[in-house]
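Quick illustration, no need to memorize.
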Amino acid sequence: MRGDSRQSNKGGQAVNLKKKVQDERDLQRQDWGHSIKVPEWIRKMREHYMRTGTYRPEDLRRLLGDPTKGVEIGAGASISNYFHQ
């Protein structure tokens, strides 16, 4: 019987440790989120989306680019050349 109580105690310690780690991760995420200044246009885009459930065309264009223009890559081009590390 004594062994059973020890096992349940260890299980409780594991649960407490998991909760502590999760709490620390939550705090880190909150700190990280507060340290980043959100640009005004993004804040307005979010507000508009929350009110209407849609994005304004100018926001989509800013995020995704002009949908009327195509992208051209030559036959010998490598996509890795377009991403700087």
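Residues 2-35 form the longest helix (34 residues).
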